[in-house]
Amino acid sequence: MVKKEEGCSLRERLARLPAVDELLHEAARRGLLPGFPKTLVGEQLRARLAAVKEEIVRLGVETEVVFEPEKFWAAVESGLKEQMAWRLKPVVNATGVVIHTNLGRSRLSPAAIAQVAAVAAGYSNLEYDLENGYRSIRYANVEELLCRLSGAEAAVVVNNNAGAVLLALSALAAGREVVVSRGELVEIGGAFRIPEIVVQGGAMLCEVGATNRTHLADYEKAITEDTALLLKVHTSNYRISGFTNSPATRELVALGRARGIPVIEDLGSGNLIDLAACGLPGEPTVTEVIGSGVDLATFSGDKLLGGPQSGIVVGRRELVEKLKKHPLNRALRIDKMTLAALEATLKEFLDPRSALREIPTLRMLTRKPEELKKRARNLRRRLLRAGGNDPRLVMRVIPEASRAGGGALPMVELPTWVLQLRIEGQSVACLEKRLRSRRRPVIVRIVNDWLVFDPRTLESEDDAEIAAACRELLEL
Ligand SMILES: *Cc1c(COP(=O)(O)O)cnc(C)c1O
């Protein structure tokens, strides 16, 4: 921001720099004010001015330097733009991982988005009974739907499934023992580990069985006067294969009933429709789990349900009431936007065909390979055109497998077709980095020195963005 200047002392040079007040006037003249918040403009000006001073001092008297306004203002403006750029922003997910926790898990359905906007923009009957004019409880808005869809007597919704499990443990087992199979003491990612969450809930963990095999008799022997719950946990992100055993939910329920101990199942994903019928590996539905007699089941709202982040508990009224009344429920309560999105998402499940069509997570999970092949080929054609048939652009469409991801069928690989791309003379690592550094980042996988675009998680609108990104990559 400075250049050479003929003979004059360091002090004179510094004194000749514009004052902050003067710069603020100039900022207004240049439209930076009120274009940007005044505090940020002031901060930028002081920071850039300090940098100029430092440079003058660093170069010393021997080097002749002078203030260069245009470079200075360009730096100020780009600094302001960078500060005001969205930190949380939409990205294009070309990874093919449908329920990608790092990329926000589930995309909401159009109805859910519209309902969030409608409820967020104004007042609502969040906790208000419109019939009687009294205060009501917020869960009432979705409880009936959840009961209808799951076959349970009662339901409560909190922030996320980790919260739901913590709440259930705190409300039903504090100061007492929770029996869990050693094969189910899982870590789900982040800080959610079953042994730790049990302790956090104020309960004591009673581990039974072995890592690979746990029998009903193991649970039976572990039950004492202090036993509060039998907890069954979906192992979500890992599998033990080979010589394994774990009692079915039904068997645990029979044991729990006989001994008067509630059985809770942490389902993780909790699907409301039969995915096996859609060609996905069969996981029992929430309705089946409730039908098998568990006292409570917990699951996420943003995994296979395809709704907003939330933790849903369904089950026996008497137990759900205890959860509702526990102080932790207040700390974990969901907000009106979550409720709005959840209600809209759940309504889609009243007609499973509508759920499969309208809920992006389900739609993407059930895309057929033939459709994906067509999409990958369309994208390839589009990029060829965007690249003006640049010979450096090398692409091919091949069969591959996409991941469901996110604790929901995480081990499952879904057949897909992907577009592989590379640009001669450029490293794929560098290309990948440039794709994710864009204003609208494009997130891809790298496989064997190829950039991989999986159309499973792309909509046709994304093709234009990817084409623009591809042109940028060819420019250097
Ligand atoms: C994903 C998962 C959780 C955590 O759910 P969040 O909604 O992410 O809090 C807990 N238990 C199991 C089995 C899971 O798969």
What's the helix and strand layout?
Blueprint: E1 2-3, H1 10-15, H2 20-29, H3 32-35, H4 38-59, E2 66-67, H5 69-84, E3 92-93, H6 110-121, E4 128-129, E5 134-135, H7 140-150, E6 154-158, H8 161-173, E7 177-181, E8 187-189, E9 192-193, H9 194-200, E10 204-208, H10 216-222, E11 227-233, H11 249-259, E12 263-268, H12 286-291, E13 296-300, E14 311-315, H13 317-325, H14 327-331, H15 336-348, H16 352-358, H17 360-365, H18 369-386, E15 393-403, E16 413-423, H19 428-436, E17 442-443, E18 445-447, E19 450-453, H20 460-475
Parallel strand pairs: 3-17, 7-10, 7-11, 11-12, 12-13
Antiparallel strand pairs: 1-2, 4-5, 6-14, 8-9, 13-14, 15-16, 16-19, 18-19
This protein binds pyridoxal-5'-phosphate.
